[in-house]
Amino acid sequence: MSERRRRRALQVACVLGLVANALMAWSVLEPTPVPIMVSMSAGQVIGTLSFLLYLMVVAADLRRARVLGDAPPEPPP
Amino acid sequence: MSTSADPHLEIVAGLGPLAVVALATAALASLIALYYLVRRPRLTTAVKLGLLAGLGALPILTAGTGNYAGFEASTTRPFCGGCHVMKPWVDDAADPRSTTLAARHSRNHLFGDRSCYTCHADYGMFGTVATKINGLHHVAAYYREYADTPIDEALRTIRIYRPFQSATCTHCHSTELPGWRAVADHRVFAEPGRGDTSCVSTGCHGPAHPFSKIARGELVGGTP
C-alpha cells in the first residue's frame, strides 16, 4: 500500500470515526428509541469500519517495515 | 392527569457519569480525527499512536459507556413516553393524584421513574435480553402501525401482547408470607389451570392503568 493510499485510508477512517462519534453522542444526548437503535447498530458498525481501516494501515506499515509478512532477507554468508 | 415536561429535557438533565464519560471520549476522539483531517500531519509514530486513541481506544470507550447509558435510559419512564401513544399511560403513572395500581407503584421509591420497566420487564434467566427484544418489537410496531395514530384511537386499540404475568408481581411481593396466604382469593394460584390468573385482573388488584380495556368494559373475563 503506497504512502498516498495509506493517508487516504486514514482520512476515510477519520471521517467514519467522526460520523460514528456523532451517532453515539446523539444517543446519549437524546436517549429515545430511534437514536439508541441507530447508535447501537449503524454507529457501531461505522466506528468498527473506521478502526478496521486504521488497523489495515498499521498492518501495511508493519509489512513494509518487514515486521509482518515477508521475513527480512538473510544476511550474506 | 398531570402534564409532564419534555421527556428529552428530563433525560438530558439526568445525565449520569457514564453518559458524561461517553460524551467526553466522543469529543476527544472527534478532536483527534479532526486534527488529522485538517492538519494532515506526517505519519510519525506519535501521530499513529494518536490515531490509535482517536479511532480505536476512545470510540470503544464511547461505545461501551454509551451502550450502558442507553440501556439505563431505556428503563426510564420518559423513554417509554418517547412514543406519543404511550403518553396517557406515562402521565397516569407520574400523576401524584392518581390511585391506579401503576401510579401507586410509581410513587414507591423502589420503582421511581423506572416503574414501566420494573413492572413490564421479564425476570427470567434471560429476562433482560427478552425484555429488550420485546422492546424492539414495540418500536417496530410503533413505526409500522402507531406513528400517526391519534391518542384517542391508541387508547382504544393498544394492548399488551399477553396477559400480565403474576410472576412479575411476585418478584417483589412474597407469596410465602402469612398475610398473603391468609387472603382466600390467593388460593386461586394453587388451583389446577388457574395458576396463570393475573394479579392485575379486574376484581383482584387491577386494572393497572385507567385505560385498560377491561376497565372500560370492552373485554369481559379476560385480563388487561
Report on the structure:
The complex is a heterodimer of chains A (77) and B (224). With 77 residues, chain A is mainly alpha-helical. Chain A is built from two helices and no strands. Chain B has a domain at 7-73. Mean pLDDT of chain B is 83; it is low at 219-224. Helix content of chain B is 53%, strand content 0%. Chain B has helices at residues 7-13, 17-39, 45-73, 77-80, 87-94, 101-106, 115-120, 127-146, 151-157, 166-170, 178-181. Chain B is elongated and about 80 Å long. In chain B, helix 2 (17-39) packs antiparallel against helix 3. Classes of the chains: A mainly alpha (77), B mainly alpha (224).
List descriptors.
heterodimer; A: 77 residues; mainly alpha; 77% helix; 0% strand; elongated; B: 224 residues; 11 helices; disordered C terminus
Largest interface: A-B, 37 and 41 residues
- The portion of residues assigned to helices of chain B is 40-55%
Tell me which oligomeric state these chains represent: heterodimer
Helix content of chain A: over 70%
Strand content of chain B: under 5%
Order of helices and strands of chain A: HH
- What are the low-pLDDT stretches of chain B, counting only 5+ consecutive residues below 50? 219-224
Label the structural class of chain A.
mainly alpha
Count of extended strands of chain B: 0
Rg of chain B, Å, rounded = 23 Å
Question: Per DSSP, what share of the residues of chain A sits in E-state strands of 2 or more residues?
Answer: under 5%
Helix and strand sequence of chain B: HHHHHHHHHHH
Q: Main sheet of chain B, how many strands, which sense, barrel?
A: none
**How many distinct beta strands of chain A?**
0
Q: What is the helix tally of chain B?
A: 11
- Averaging pLDDT over every residue of chain A, what do you get? 87
Question: Topology, pairings included?
Answer:
The complex is a heterodimer of chains A (77) and B (224).
Chain A: H1 3-29, H2 33-64
Helix pairs in contact in A: 1-2
Chain B: H1 7-13, H2 17-39, H3 45-73, H4 77-80, H5 87-94, H6 101-106, H7 115-120, H8 127-146, H9 151-157, H10 166-170, H11 178-181
